Amino acid sequence: MKPKLLLIAWIVIAPFNMEAQEVVTSTGDFFESTDVQVSWTIGELMTATFETASVHLTQGEQQSSFNYSSIVESKDMTDVSIYPNPFQDVFTVNSNGEQYQFAIYAATGQTVLAGEIGSAQTQLTLSEIADGIYYLRIYSDSSEKSFKLIKH
After folding, report:
1. Is position 126 within any domain?
2. Distance between CA 53 and CA 120 in Å, rounded?
3. Are 121 and 93 in contact (CB under 8 A)?
């Protein structure tokens, strides 16, 4: 009688408690042959998740999507500089006179202004945007340099 009762309890309770632990992984792989299947992950167990209609929060910095950005400086753009910084409405980009593209981004990543720089001194006017921190990216096909701008 006791084994039957335990079996019935396991059948009733097990479906609610037999969830596999979810893993947030940084890498892994899968191998399959005629004899064996192997899969492995390197990561961390997710121990807590909170969700609402607009928020998905997992313990730690373990999110389902990642956005990476970087600032890359090339040695051949060492002659590119800006002044003044901080600035009010206008700042100047000094370069070697080569043709460069530029883009100015708000802290949110939104492009505020984009264009070309083709002279040794180029003045850029940002009188129409709010005071704050912006990022200037100057680039060509082979090089790139970025600056943090402060408009006040």
Report:
1. yes
2. 52
3. yes
Residue-range definition of the domain harbouring residue 44: 22-66
Are 54 and 84 contained in the same domain? Answer: no
Look up residue 148 and give its two tokens. 């943090």
Which one, of 122, 124, 121, lies nearest residue 113 by Cα? 124
- The tens digit of pLDDT for each residue in 47-100 reads 556 677 766 555 544 445 555 566 655 456 788 999 999 999 999 999 888 889
Taking Cα atoms as reference points, which of 88, 104, 117, 95 lies closest to residue 147?
A: 104
Does the residue 9 lie in any domain?
A: no
127-149 tens-digit pLDDT: 999 999 999 999 988 888 999 99
Backbone angles phi, psi at 67, to 5 degrees: -120, 120
The pLDDT assigned to 50 comes to 62
In this structure, are residues 89 and 126 in contact, taking their beta carbons and an 8 Å threshold? yes
Question: What is the residue-wise DSSP string for 88-109?
Answer: SSEEEEE--S--EEEEEEETTS
